[in-house]
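Action item from last meeting closed. Structure (241 res):
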């Protein structure tokens, strides 16, 4: 009887204990689900934060790239503007000719006229250069012809002198072999230049007898001329003569 009562009393306790244990297990399971939910939330939050950071970084890179491009563009634009030709002449070249002002048209006309004048002068210089070249060629040819003519004349003169010398030598031999009286008579009739040429080439011992037979006045005149020709001192005049 006591055993049955003890069994009856232990049954509710066992049920209660089992219920409590089940409650604890359910609580643990619930807490596990809560932890999973919190972890999922934290993971999702972290992923969202990461995505935001990546987006911000991309936006920043894009902004920096845009700023860099703007800076490069701002740097390139002045350079392009700097490299762009300036001045009225570049304007005349780059712009539409129909948009030129009257001053620009006048400038172009002046430049064209200046170019025409320069080309005309260049042509004149070419023509003058050709004429000068031709004249120089003719002058050189004339100079060569004159050189040939001078050489020819020099040769003729030399030949004539040699012939004259040969004739004089022959005459000298003739007069030297003549009698002094006959030679003196011929000397008195000769011109002074011819007489001097012959007398100068004669030997002194052959000339002296001839001069002794000549007219004293003619002999004296010939002596003066020979002394000057030979640069010999004149003989002194005798005192009282």
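Sequence:
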């Amino acid at each position: 009887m006591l055993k049955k009562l003890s069994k009856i009393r232990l049954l509710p306790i066992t049920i209660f204990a089992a219920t409590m244990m089940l409650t604890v297990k359910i609580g643990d399971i619930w807490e596990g689900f809560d932890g999973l939910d919190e972890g999922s939330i934290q993971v999702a939050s972290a992923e969202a934060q990461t995505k935001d950071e990546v987006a911000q970084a991309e936006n920043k890179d894009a902004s920096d790239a845009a700023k860099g491009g703007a800076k490069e563009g701002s740097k390139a634009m002045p350079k392009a503007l700097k490299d762009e030709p300036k001045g009225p002449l570049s304007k005349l070249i780059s712009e539409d000719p129909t948009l030129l002002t009257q001053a620009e048209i006048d400038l172009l006309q002046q430049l064209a006229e200046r170019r025409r004048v320069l080309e005309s002068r260049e042509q004149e210089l070419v023509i003058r250069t050709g004429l000068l070249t031709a004249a120089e060629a003719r002058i050189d040819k004339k100079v060569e012809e004159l050189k040939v003519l001078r050489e020819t004349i020099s040769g003729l003169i030399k030949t004539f002198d040699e012939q004259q010398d040969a004739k004089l030598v022959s005459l000298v031999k003739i007069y030297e072999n003549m009698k002094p009286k006959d030679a003196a008579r011929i000397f008195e009739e000769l011109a002074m230049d011819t007489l001097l040429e012959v007398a100068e080439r004669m030997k002194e011992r052959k000339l002296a007898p001839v001069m002794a037979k000549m007219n004293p006045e003619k002999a004296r005149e010939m002596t003066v001329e020979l002394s000057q020709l030979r640069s010999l001192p004149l003989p002194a005049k005798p005192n009282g003569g």
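Note appended to the action item: The radius of gyration is 72 Å.
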